Amino acid sequence: MAMKIGKDVEYAAKLLRHDQLVAIPTETVYGLAANALRQSALVKVFETKQRPRFDPLIVHVAHADVLTDYVREVPTWALDLIKNFWPGPLTLLLPKQDIIPDLCTAGLAKVAVRMPRHPLALALLQQLDFPLAAPSANPFGFVSPTTAAHVADQLTDQVDYVLDGGPATVGLESTIVGYEGSRPVVYRLGGVPLEALEQVVGKVHMLLNQSSNPAAPGQLKSHYSPGIPLELGDLQKLRHRHEGENYALLSLQPTAPDHPFQEVLSPTGNLSEAAQNLFGALRRLRKAGVSLILAEEMPDRGLGRAINDRLRRASAG
Ligand code: TXA
Ligand code: MG
């Protein structure tokens, strides 16, 4: 069956009630959604993404009020984060209730939950009496999709419907926060900047970039592969090192107007705009016919941190 793209929330809801897969827009990236409470629907998600079963899925809810249906406890710091960042690009790792299938959490005791901010995602969730498990709607290890067309590019016949909500406004996956003991821990940098988190809960620990991290097994270094080699660092040095080679440039602001293949993430140096453009830019460069991407390291603040994290993983791929 050819994949359909549209804005029909009712149709999307109907498919999901029948355990089918729907790609949904969120403010971060597009997700590949299924009924989070149905093992048979979850199996389809893993198969379609070719995702290993040890890599758990994020559960999306319509409202913070339903959270306690799915998790056993919500610590005070988590409540504070919810007040400040839900709906939005923040995922919380909390002890799961039995109603969440083990397949969803890959057998782990905690489930990842978030309430997205995208109006179509919320309208859809409000029509359903179950939450939606949704990993990013890309084949495992690939750059996440930020438009319906990106989803269609890679998952052509394998999704029953793509709910088109336009380009993602954040453009990076959610920030994932869990805890060890009584202290919040960041497992993935994302759409909520570290500084904003710390304004609410104080200093947080970070557990990133582990090649085998049992708490967040998806944090593999080689994630976010753009399909061609990528080197991250100081552009001038990189260009010097690769002189004469067929490379493309990825920079925050314009640096080499004469270079034929390049992506500028934000002409004014705005890191939110850069985040919005990052994954689209990587997809375009993949198709540009170059053999190498030279990427500039972003300032290490705000969303720049999360962008650097994705570029670092892309460079390890
Ligand atoms: O912004 C986002 O978070 C997007 C949109 C669609 O919501 N989703 C997303 O899902 O990025 P995915 O599956 O591509 O990445 C989820 C990450 C993975 O690294 C996974 O290992 C981790 O979250 N994760 C999910 N559930 C977990 C759990 N129970 N314990 C530890 N890590 C978990
Ligand atoms: Mg992903």
Describe this structure in words.
By secondary structure, the chain is α/β, with parallel strands linked by helices. The chain is built from eleven helices and 15 strands. A hairpin with a 2-residue loop joins strand 9 and strand 10. The radius of gyration is 19 Å and the shape is globular. The mean pLDDT is 93. The site of magnesium ion has 3 residues, from loops.
Helix content: 25-40%
Q: What Rg is obtained from the alpha carbons, in whole angstroms?
A: 19 Å
- Average of pLDDT: 93
In this entry the ligands are:
threonylcarbamoyladenylate, magnesium ion
Give the helix/strand layout.
Blueprint: E1 5-6, H1 9-17, E2 22-24, E3 31-35, H2 39-49, E4 58-60, H3 67-70, H4 76-85, E5 90-95, H5 102-105, E6 110-114, H6 119-127, E7 132-133, H7 148-154, E8 161-163, E9 175-180, E10 183-188, H8 194-201, E11 205-206, E12 230-233, H9 235-241, E13 247-251, E14 262-264, H10 271-286, E15 292-296, H11 303-315
Parallel strand pairs: 1-8, 2-8, 4-6, 5-9, 10-11, 12-15, 13-14, 13-15
Antiparallel strand pairs: 2-3, 3-7, 4-7, 5-6, 9-10
Helix pairs in contact: 1-6, 10-11
Give keywords.
eleven-stranded mixed β-sheet, four-stranded parallel β-sheet, alpha/beta, 11 helices, binds magnesium ion, about 325 residues, about 30% helix, globular, binds threonylcarbamoyladenylate
In brief:
The protein is of the alpha/beta class. The protein has eleven helices and 15 strands.
